[in-house]
């Protein structure tokens, strides 16, 4: 509310000052109004643009002006009167162009400065390479990436692109309750990862305006920076792999870490419900793997030892078939011997 009051004062004071101090006519009033609008426009830009962008733009403008002045000095040292006269004639334009280029370069490339390997003078195998992981929206919503980071299996920097963060915020602001809770969970997971001192996290501002889909932007970013993509999205996994980008899928990691059981092994399982077939019982391992217990219906609500008989791997996951120890210890029926003639 206060800022609107201040802006109104500026708009009123502008034409008044222009009329009283510049020219007591319409010209002075117009100059005052224009000055007031410029002041408010600059204030709005400062309010919208992040501080790091403003600082980067200021530094870029200074570097550009210094470069333009250095070019003028080089032209002067060349002792070419005609060339020097042209440089002086267009000096203002040259300074404006160099300042603009400096601002644009520093603002657009500022997020990439931290990604540069600063140890540039070290060559060959002695040069330490930093690994970067581009984070997808799905892996933040999934949440298991935070647990992986806490186990210190990832050594490198997590890159959260600005377009991924925007997509996550849009999901968190959705009118659909389920999507909204998923988006908020993703933001909470990102905050949790940022609080982990062992895992550096950088918000990366580079945009790809020519690419509309977030997945395509993420693949382009990973390809440009030589980063790996962290995701749980099956389609993104395929697209990125086809374009030569390494993908780390949390689902693949979870499947690889499932406990290995072999036929004949004994395991302990809690039977929670009946199965589809007659007298079957069903239980689950800690990772969600379904365990089917033959003749286990009568043991529902109890924990028991079972013997693994077979393992079935399907596209939906893995199923383990077992039988109770009582059935496993039953003697096999004798094999009939051929009659002697």
Explain what you see.
This protein has 341 residues and is of the alpha/beta class. The protein has three domains: 2-113, no CATH class; 129-256, 5'-nuclease (Rossmann fold, 3-Layer(aba) Sandwich); 266-329, OB fold (Dihydrolipoamide Acetyltransferase, E2P) (Beta Barrel), CATH 2.40.50. The protein has 13 helices and ten strands. The strands form two sheets. A five-stranded parallel sheet has the order 3-2-1-4-5. Strands 6-7-8-10-9 form a five-stranded mixed β-barrel. A hairpin with a 5-residue loop joins β7 (281-284) and β8.
The gist of it:
With 341 residues, the protein is of the alpha/beta class. 52% of the residues lie in helices and 17% in strands.
CATH topology of the largest domain: Rossmann fold
Would you state the CATH class of the largest domain?
Alpha Beta
Total number of beta strands: 10
Radius of gyration: 34 Å
> Poorly predicted ranges (pLDDT <50, ≥5 residues)?
117-128, 332-341
Number of structural units classed as domains: 3
Strand percentage, roughly? 15-25%
Number of helices: 13
Instruction: Give the mean pLDDT.
Output: 82
The percent range for helix content is: 40-55%
The CATH architecture designation of the largest domain is 3-Layer(aba) Sandwich
CATH superfamily of the largest domain: 5'-nuclease
Read across the widest sheet, the strand sequence of neighbours is 3-2-1-4-5
């Amino acid at each position: 509310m206060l800022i609107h009051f201040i802006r109104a004062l500026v708009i009123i004071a502008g034409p008044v000052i222009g009329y009283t101090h510049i020219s007591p006519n319409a010209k002075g009033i117009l100059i005052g109004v224009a000055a007031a609008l410029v002041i408010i426009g600059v204030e709005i830009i400062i309010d919208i643009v992040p501080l790091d962008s403003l600082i980067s733009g200021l530094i870029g403008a200074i570097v550009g002006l210094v470069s333009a002045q250095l070019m003028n000095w080089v032209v002067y040292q060349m002792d070419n009167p005609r060339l020097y006269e042209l440089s002086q004639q267009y000096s203002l334009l040259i300074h404006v162009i160099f300042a603009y280029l400096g601002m644009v370069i520093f603002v657009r490339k500022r997020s990439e400065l931290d990604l540069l390997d600063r140890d540039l003078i070290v060559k060959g195998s002695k040069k330490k390479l930093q690994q970067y992981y581009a984070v997808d929206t799905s892996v933040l919503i999934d949440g298991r990436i935070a647990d992986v980071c806490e186990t210190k299996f990832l050594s490198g920097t997590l890159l959260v692109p600005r377009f991924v963060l925007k997509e996550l915020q849009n999901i968190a602001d959705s009118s659909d309750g389920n999507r909204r809770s998923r988006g908020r969970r993703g933001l909470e997971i990102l905050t949790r990862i940022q609080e982990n001192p062992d895992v550096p996290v950088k918000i990366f501002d580079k945009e790809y305006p020519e690419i509309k889909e977030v997945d395509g932007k993420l693949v382009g970013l990973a390809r440009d920076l030589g980063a790996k993509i962290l995701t749980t999205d099956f389609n993104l996994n395929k697209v990125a792999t086809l374009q030569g980008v390494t993908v780390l899928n949390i689902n693949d990691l979870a499947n690889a870490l499932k406990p290995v059981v072999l036929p004949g092994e004994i395991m302990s399982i809690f039977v929670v419900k009946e199965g589809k077939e007659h007298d079957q019982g069903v239980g689950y391992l800690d990772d969600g793997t379904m365990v089917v217990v033959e003749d286990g219906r009568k043991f529902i609500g109890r924990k028991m030892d079972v013997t693994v008989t077979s393992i079935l791997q399907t596209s939906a996951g893995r199923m383990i078939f077992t039988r109770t120890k009582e059935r496993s210890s039953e003697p096999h029926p004798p094999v009939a011997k051929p009659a002697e003639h």
